[in-house]
Give the backbone structure.
Amino acid sequence: MEIIKTAVAGTLESSDCMVTIEPAQRGLEIDLDSAVIRQYGKRIMEVASETLDRLGVQNARVTIVDKGALDCTIKARVECAAMRAVEHDGRVNWGGVIR
Amino acid sequence: MTNPNKYRLRRTMMFLNCQKPGLIKDPYIYKPDSIMLDLEDAVAEREKDAARYSLYHALQEIDYRGVERVVRINGLDTDLWREDVRCAVAGGCDSIRIPKTENADDVRTVEYAIAEAEREFRRPAGSVLIMAALESARGVINAMSICDSSERLFGIALSGGDYSKDLQISISGTGVEFMGARQHMIIAARAAKVQCFDTVWTNLDDMEGFRREVEIIHSMGFDGKSIINPRQIPIVHEIYTPKEKDIIFAEKVIKEIETKKAQGIGVFTVDGKMIDIAFYDGARRTIALAKASGVYKGDL
């Protein structure tokens, strides 16, 4: 999956996270800002990386501003931002790459 | 075979905006009977995609602890509803609410899409139920055929906001403008043996008005009410929980009818009231509701 434009998903409200995905040339770069980074930073990065891997995103700059999001919200926001960044506008592969 | 969840207890259905993770992460703590995960009006047009991803993962990963998970899809006049159905069924929802239902064909159209999605995502056929929201004069007039439209349909709900616009009236808070629709819908629902739900009460500063309205719709026979705030839940549940005197009377009616039937007696009195077989089902419903509400201690 090739990121063709910058896209954002999510908000800065409590229990949410804002994910920004931008095109990049070489590999994945994930930047995380979270008030609970010491307790949950590793887990948030794992969830984001696994989600991007499942989507087949190999080159992108990803910024996550976390406001206490659950794993399911992190996945949902990363997927939404990625799909917007590739201008996906059709049937979603629920249970496949989205799971 | 009828889905065993078709006639479950649904006193309260709480609307939750799928666009807001903070709302859908733990609503079970308020103990509503059902939650209504909304992809329609509450979600901004440009956030429809985001709401679906949130919905899918919430359904897959959050344990709602037995609370029924109903998903309100976008209207059949949009290009959104088919993907909403796929998302909801794939995620594992219990039911789908069709907004702005005008006729029986609307229900059958969605039913067909649900059946396709059940096959696609390998869910048992018939596992996803349907409820239909009636939001227009035409929808209310067609209540009977809508109630009869599908084995999956467990109930109909009045949606007061759009209905009042269609009737070119404003909502007074007295309920007078909804009297005809409410009476018509409850009669149709009972005739078809499905459930019937009332519209939301939006003025959270007037909880006394809310209580009065719940008492009215309870006495009319509605099975429950759509709600928008957790503060409304205990009021509805209190009103819908059978009182001790009603439970005791229902027990006497059931036992007396069974005894007298064996003796060949058709009409008799219980606590001074004339009773016959016509009272049996109502008494059984009172006991069932008392059991479901957790207040029945008897042996029936």
Remarks:
- Chain A has two helices and four strands.
- Strands of chain A lie at 7-9, 17-23, 28-34, 60-66.
- Chain A has one domain: 7-85.
- Chain A touches chain B through 24 residues (CB under 8 Å).
